[in-house]
Amino acid sequence: GAAELVKSAPDGYTLMIGSMVDYSIAPHIHANLGFDMRRDMAGLQALATGGTVVVASTGQGKFEQVLVDGRHSLLADEPASAGGADVGPGPYELLLMALGSCTSMTIHLYAARKQWPVEQVVVRLRHSRVYAEDCAECEGNARAMIDRIDRAIEVVGALDAEQRSRLLQIANQCPVHRTLSSKIDIKTTAV
Fold first, then answer.
1. pLDDT of res. 50
2. Which residues pair with 30 in a beta bridge?
3. Which of 65, 126, 124, 79 is closest to 100 using CA atoms?
4. CB-CB contact of 68 with 41 (8 Å)
5. How far is CA 136 from the centre of its chain?
6. What are the CA-CA distances from residue 35 to residues 5, 43, 182 (Å)?
7. Long-range CB contacts (< 8 A, 24+ apart) of 105-109?
8. What is the pLDDT along the chain (191 residues), one digit of tens a residue?
9. What is the 3-state secondary structure (H, E, C) of the chain?
10. CA distance 54 to 44
């Protein structure tokens, strides 16, 4: 059944259709799967369907996590200076990478639609915690701190000043930028 299919090499013909929800919610019901749904990469990939991303600790190191989206996988960790093994980017680095990649893609799409000669977009980002500008007497008050992302965008190509200015405006319209700048409602449930 499922154990053999998950462990088998892709053949281009075999398709498994079914719900993996009961395996992930109550794996003790299916104790003889032949793989650990929470540790096996193929099992985790099977859970990441329909726009769902799955993040699970790997059991390796203090902070190491595997991130899967059904098609891709990567590792996240903390740097050695924070007690991790540095086998992958940290959470804030992943957040910055999401914003940077979305920014670059959005600029490329807009420039292509306008037929502007953009050869490359390089986005450099840094996250920090700073005091709000209008906060008097903030020193030592952690609640007065705000998150700041500094983003520097280099657009390579034969563009005039007006085109470059417009591309910087377009950068602020990338979907990840809009998500990060809006009110975010995160609903957490226990499984």
1. 80
2. none
3. 124
4. yes
5. 35
6. 11, 8, 41
7. 105/174, 106/170, 106/171, 106/173, 106/174, 106/175, 107/153, 107/155, 107/167, 107/170, 107/171
8. 555 655 667 766 665 554 444 444 445 555 555 555 556 677 777 777 888 888 999 888 899 999 998 888 899 999 999 999 999 999 999 999 999 999 999 999 999 999 999 999 999 999 998 876 666 566 666 567 889 999 999 999 999 999 999 999 999 999 999 999 999 999 999 88
9. CHHHHHHCCCCCCCCCCCCCHHHHHCHHHHCCCCCCCCCCHHHHHHHCCCCCCEEEECCCCCCCEEEECCCCEEEECCCHHHCCCCCCCCHHHHHHHHHHHHHHHHHHHHHHHHCCCEEEEEEEEEEEEEECCCCCCCCCCHHHEEEEEEEEEEEEECCCHHHHHHHHHHHCCCHHHHHHHCCCCCCCCCC
10. 7
Q: How many residues does the chain have?
A: 191
Spatial distance between the Cα atoms of 48 and 45, rounded to a whole number of angstroms: 5
In degrees and rounded to multiples of 5, residue 83 shows phi and psi of 95, 0
